[in-house]
């Protein structure tokens, strides 16, 4: 299996007449606590900056106000059934690459709807996401040096999108 397509090939065509709110991706992130709000924020916010339409963040009630204050673009839900969610989910770290992988995996599913193995679409999405975030990191480092932070990378995602996006996908 080879992944020869370019990262820009994954971006949905915004000129398609069937494009509606949500067709470029609706994602959900689960995570956070009163002490732990950064990684869930980045995991939920990065897909929006890359091109997803909606990003829901389900979090512990103690973290909801803090997370809502980070960005009005996120749809933050205090976990009404937080104890049930904790019992059913294995929690893991999330950051920019997690969110990028989610949106690129969604776009890979749209790009390769007839793939024989669904895991192939996930792998293609993960590969495109890693290339995208790697470029974002390198270009952010060029401008900020060692003082760069995840927030600097978030602010640079638009430049990375413009770098990879195909001219035919631009409105």
TrEMBL record:
Enzyme class: lyase
Domain YjeF C-terminal: 4-171
Catalysis performed (reactions): (6S)-NADPHX + ATP = ADP + phosphate + NADPH + H(+)
Keyword Nucleus appears in the UniProt entry: no
Residue ranges of the TM segments: none
GO biological process: metabolite repair
InterPro entries found in the cross-reference section: CARKD (IPR000631), Ribokinase-like (IPR029056)
Pfam families the UniProt entry points to: Carb_kinase
PROSITE patterns in UniProt: YJEF_C_3
E.C. number(s) listed in UniProt: 4.2.1.93
Keywords for the protein's UniProt record, in alphabetical order: ATP-binding, Lyase, NAD, NADP, Nucleotide-binding
Coiled coil (UniProt feature): none
Name of the protein in its database record: ATP-dependent NAD(P)H-hydrate dehydratase
């Amino acid at each position: 299996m080879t992944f020869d397509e370019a990262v820009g090939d994954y971006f949905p065509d915004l000129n398609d007449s069937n494009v509606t709110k949500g067709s470029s991706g609706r994602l959900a992130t689960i995570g956070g606590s009163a002490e732990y709000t950064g990684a869930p924020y980045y995991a939920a916010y990065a897909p929006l900056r890359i091109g997803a339409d909606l990003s829901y963040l389900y979090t512990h009630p103690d973290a909801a106000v803090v997370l809502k204050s980070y960005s009005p673009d996120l749809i933050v839900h205090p976990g009404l059934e937080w104890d049930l969610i904790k019992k059913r989910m294995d929690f893991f770290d999330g950051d920019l690459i997690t969110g990028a992988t989610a949106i690129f995996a969604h776009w890979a599913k749209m790009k390769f709807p007839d793939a024989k193995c669904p895991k192939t679409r996930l792998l293609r999405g993960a590969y495109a996401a890693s290339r995208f975030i790697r470029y974002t990191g390198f270009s952010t480092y060029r401008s900020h040096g060692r003082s760069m932070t995840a927030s600097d990378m978030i602010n640079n995602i638009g430049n990375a999108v413009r770098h990879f996006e195909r001219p035919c996908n631009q409105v």
